[in-house]
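A reminder from the course coordinator: this example appears on the midterm review sheet, so study it carefully.

Given structure:
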């Protein structure tokens, strides 16, 4: 009796796995994409914050794109489309602007403002959910310390 019952139930798990495998694959790809985009967003935020920290040292450094750009590029060096041979920050995938705001900070004090735009590489597009590329834009304003 038991062997007959086992024979009837054999293969049920394999069939269930075969039917659900496309959904598992779809969920894995979606989680992979979201993780990649989350990493890019965190890197962009970190690059903007570190660059603003440098620019807030003095009014002279607040508008100094020549020194702010390498800082941003070093923070974004973990990104796949920002290589060590990249030296400019005026075209995608990385655009950086920096400015000195005299009495223009959020608290009415002198401030440095840095904006970073980063465009990711295309990973695995999911039509309707995830596009081929994402562009992240972050602005950080910090009171001058010096």
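Designed residues:
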């Amino acid at each position: 009796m038991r062997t007959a019952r086992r024979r009837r139930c054999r293969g049920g798990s394999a069939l269930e796995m075969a039917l659900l495998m496309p959904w598992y694959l779809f969920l894995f790809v979606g989680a992979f994409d979201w993780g990649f985009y989350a990493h890019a967003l965190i890197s962009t935020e970190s690059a903007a914050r570190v660059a603003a920290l440098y620019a807030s040292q003095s009014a002279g450094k607040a508008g100094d794109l020549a020194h702010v750009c390498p800082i941003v590029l070093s923070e974004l060096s973990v990104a796949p489309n920002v290589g060590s041979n990249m030296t400019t920050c005026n075209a995608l995938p990385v655009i950086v602007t920096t400015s000195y705001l005299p009495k223009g900070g959020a608290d009415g004090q002198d401030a440095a403002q840095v904006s970073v735009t980063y465009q990711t590489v295309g990973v695995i597009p999911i039509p309707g959910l995830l596009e081929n590329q994402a562009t992240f834009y972050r602005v950080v304003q910090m009171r001058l310390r010096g």
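Strands lie at 90-91, 94-101, 111-119, 135-143. Residues 2-143 form one domain.
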